[in-house]
Amino acid sequence: MTKKRYFFTVLILGSLTALGPFSIDMYLPGFPAIAKSFHTTTAEISLSLSSFFIGLAAGQLLYGPLLDRFGRKRPLYVGLAVYLISSAGCYFCSDINSLIVLRFAQALGACAASVASMTMVRDIFPLNQNAKIFALLILILGASPMIAPTLGGYITEAWGWHLIFVVLGGMALVILLTVIFLLPESYKPNPDYSLKPAPIINSFLTVIKEPQFYTYAFAGAFSFASLFVYVSASPIVFMEVFKVSAKTYGWIFAALSVGFIGASQVNNLLLKRYKSEQIIWVALSTQVVVALLFVIGSWYHWYALGGTIGITFIMLCCVGTVSPNASALSLAPFEHNAGTASALLGAMQLGLGALMTLGIGLFKGGSALPMAGIMETTAVIGMLILAFGSKHIVHKVEVSEHAVVAH
Q1: Which of 401, 262, 397 is nearest to 331 (CA)?
Q2: Tens digits of residue pLDDT in 166-220
Q3: How do the domains of the chain map onto residue ranges?
Q4: Model pTM?
Q5: Is 387 exposed, middle or buried (0-12, 13-18, 19+ CB in 10 A)?
Q6: By Cβ atoms counted within 10 A, which residue in 97, 286, 301, 340 is the most buried?
Q7: Would you say 35 and 126 are in contact if contact means Cβ atoms under 8 Å apart?
Q8: CA distances from 158 to 27, 153, 218, 234, 249 (A)
Q9: Residue 336: in which H helix or E strand, if any?
């Protein structure tokens, strides 16, 4: 693959991965305006965000089998078409119930882009480059929390919230055209792959029974859940506990995103000297220790605003290091059903992340302790899974910058 082809392939796959997060972050500043337009409350508008998350989780399991049966691009075309139609519907809708349904449909479309991009990494690039490519996708993905909310705020203020969905639809259209003309089909359709419920369930069971998959997928998903907890709890911690303004919170959110994104890129340098497996052990162990210090410090009120930002930054660095390596090792054993494995991995990450955020309701009083406690819980569970699961991996497929070894 030429350098030019390599660059455009990574850029297209990164754009596919970022479509869903942009769809979440860009319309958040428009909540009050949407509520006013629909004569309802901001709390009810947030249900459209909940339906989006549900659509993403459900879509993970839907597209995996489709990608393995029909190839990568045809299901992707369908998903992007659904996204375009539902974006147009969001622009024209005039009540909350319609928005909730349309956002669910929009998530199903965005999910096709996410699952296909992860699967095509496994198809297109050598196995020993997968962790590096996943880290590059995270770099592109990182543009969302730093650009989308600000852009959405300017659009809402200047032209109204409806135009946000025009912009999102325009992004999807550009992505669709680049996929059609610049992205090669990476997997031939498999007519022998059955779409009947029983074979699909058996396919998912086959994937999850693979020790290397369930070890690194679950360990990585619990580590990744800390990111969901942070996103859900950070408005409360920074704006209610530490009383910063919404503008200041935006800058804090952007700065902390640099930790997650930057760590994923430092991971590329680490892969030149260490195996993905070694990096995960160190990063997840560090995450457990840092989260414990966060819990103790929050209990004794050691951390002011600066300290809380600093220790959260380190936590997100750990997550950003674990995530690409866990994804690469989880998918490494699969070649013919990589779509199913990728979909199951995504569903696990979204599902566990959403489940862990339920504990955010524990926030009472002026402390970051609930956020720290849930982060420690997820890190410890991930570490235990890694420790016990590794013992059951008989034929390990290792991934590093220099070697692909099955033993």
Answers
A1: 397
A2: 999 999 999 999 999 988 888 888 887 777 888 778 878 888 888 888 888 999 9
A3: 8-182, 210-393
A4: 0.70
A5: middle
A6: 340
A7: no
A8: 14, 9, 44, 27, 22
A9: none
